[in-house]
Amino acid sequence: MAFFSRKLICTVCRKKYYTNLRNSHGEYFKGIPKKGDLCKNQILNESLKLSWNIRNPFEIYKNPCLINNYTTCSSDTNQDKGGRHKYHQDIEIAVNQQILTEFNASYSYLSMSAFFGRTDVALPGCQGFFYDMYMEEIEHAIVFMNYQLMRGGHVILYTIEAPEKDWCNIERAFEVGLQTEKNVKDKITCLLLEAEKHCDHQLVDFLTSQYLKEQNECIQKMGRLLTRAKKMIKDPNGEFLFDRQLFSNYVKDKNLMFSTHLPDVEDKTYK
């Protein structure tokens, strides 16, 4: 079937323009299409005031009235301004909740690190390990904050829950740590489902290509360490050996758990 350009009048601005239009059955309009010419389930957007389908997506630029209505994903059209584009409000709320989850996890790990660093506990391996976990969760929260800003959303910081103060022993700390990582993964999964619901493919790729794999690896690491801790702390010297292995295998060389002063701005070691 040949394609013919027809002169039509936009029902929004009443301006005349030329484009190729057809209804849901492939029939081309000879004049201004009527409301019943297009099936309701084929309307591109609920806010689309024009009652015809576009054959070629690039034809959108021939009619300015279609620019704000043609979309491939769900969004709040009233908020698509400035640097924000096709970023649904439900996703924005879910990202803020993910930021809160990351900060809550980091606060728990910081409390664990402070507990094992006490002079009456003195387990530097556990102290350094949980401090590194604290820094990792902080980095994740900052990444989600930057993503929120990059998409034109607003970062809202909620109140962080107070963690436990006395962790009793190594086994208790790693049990809570394992559950914390599972909770973080569950939140990421909820955010992923929200992104898929609104066809936000960029956010789906952002989550699946990096965070889900990392969370699964972290859950495995926590689970293995918890199993080893349960076996080793039964022996009188097991707690000491477990802590030493934890320090040598997991604590980073530049861990700041023993730092008691602020780094000099001009100090090259911190650049």
Automatic annotation (TrEMBL):
GO terms for molecular function: ferroxidase activity; metal ion binding. Keywords: Iron, Iron storage, Metal-binding, Oxidoreductase. The keyword Metal-binding applies. Its EC number is 1.16.3.1. GO terms for biological process: intracellular iron ion homeostasis. SUPFAM superfamilies: Ferritin-like. It is an enzyme of class 1 (oxidoreductase). It catalyses: 4 Fe(2+) + O2 + 4 H(+) = 4 Fe(3+) + 2 H2O. Gene3D superfamilies: 1.20.1260.10. Residues 85-233 form the Ferritin-like diiron domain. The keyword Metal-binding applies. Fe cation binds at residues 102, 137, 140, 181, 215. PANTHER family: FERRITIN. Belongs to the ferritin family. Stores iron in a soluble, non-toxic, readily available form. Important for iron homeostasis. Iron is taken up in the ferrous form and deposited as ferric hydroxides after oxidation. This is Ferritin.
